[in-house]
Amino acid sequence: MNVLECENQVSRDGRMTAKILDGKIIAQRLKDQLKEEVDVLKKKHGRGPRLVNVMIGDNHSACAYANSQKKVAEYIGIEYDLLNLSTEITQEEFIEEIKKLNSDSAVNGIMIHKPIPEHIDYSKVADFVDINKDLEGINVANIGKMILDQTKIIPCTPASCMEHIRSSGINLRGKEAVIVGHSTIVGKPLSLLLLNEYATVTVCHIATSEAGKLVEHIQKADLLVVAVGKPGLIKGDWIKPGAVVIDVGINRVDSKIVGDVEFDSAKNKAGYITPVPGGVGPVTVVMLMRNGIEAFKVQIRGKE
Ligand code: NAD
What we know:
Elements: E1 6-10, E2 16-21, H1 23-45, E3 50-56, H2 60-76, E4 79-85, H3 91-103, E5 109-112, H4 122-126, H5 140-147, H6 156-168, E6 176-180, H7 187-196, E7 200-204, H8 206-210, H9 214-219, E8 223-226, E9 244-247, E10 251-253, E11 256-258, H10 263-266, E12 272-273, H11 280-303
Parallel strand pairs: 2-12, 3-4, 3-5, 6-7, 6-8, 8-9, 9-12
Antiparallel strand pairs: 1-2, 10-11
Helix pairs in contact: 1-11, 2-11, 6-7, 6-11
The structure holds nicotinamide-adenine-dinucleotide.
Residues 157, 180-183, 185-187, 204-206, 208-209, 214, 227-230, 233, 248-251, 280-281, 284 line the site of nicotinamide-adenine-dinucleotide (NAD).
């Protein structure tokens, strides 16, 4: 366990409560490791990774997120460019832009910034991103390689969850891992990563709730990961004492950001818990950079 990353909490009545898995501290450790790795790569190859974020339009929150990515990239020593395209662009023109980036040897990683306009089919264009430049690990071929445990390019949010889980020190082998949410970007890929660690994985979703079975699954979870997008869906009472709880949810309630887990009650039952904000989010950005470095290494190996 990395004790520095887990802050012990004591409640007002003196009881110990869950250790907080602090995303900012985990992110800082990983950024420092990646910075060292990039320094070595630059010395060896004369340059480091260059990443391009393709954004359609200039949506305010998307720009803020891109700025935070740029800051992290700069810290690590990665070149990061924003390619801003008009909202008038057609799907075919957009695919052409992706193909240009694919064939540009000075570009090592590509990401498609969401949201994108409705007239463009995200999953279709994402599959045009070169498998070796796929920063977000969302390309269908990378997902296939992940099933076979053959790639280091892993979707960023599940990769962030895994870093938090490692920081808790839990040995997943034979443990009950319950994921709530089965999206393509979080729940499904995370289930594969947990299976690779020999956890016994249950994936719950809306139909689990409809069948009235959500609580019984959560009660048996040694590890609980929630990625739904409904504030306070998971009540503290349901959590198994000592469980590791990873809250991926980001919800705006009365101008505050909260997760999917009722934090105040959950921290009295859990052994470890991520805060929202300041948990999974900060590490997710760093995982994007890690994928960029992996992509760079694969491309360099291809040329050697
Ligand atoms: P999504 O909307 O694609 O999927 C939601 C999932 O929740 C589905 O599997 C659905 O069946 C399930 N669900 C809905 N209501 C439910 C209920 N009552 N009981 C059980 N399951 C229910 O979600 P997503 O894109 O994976 O995002 C989920 C949340 O995670 C959102 O709040 C999003 O903002 C957040 N998110 C955070 C990060 C990060 O880096 N921190 C990254 C991605 C997503």
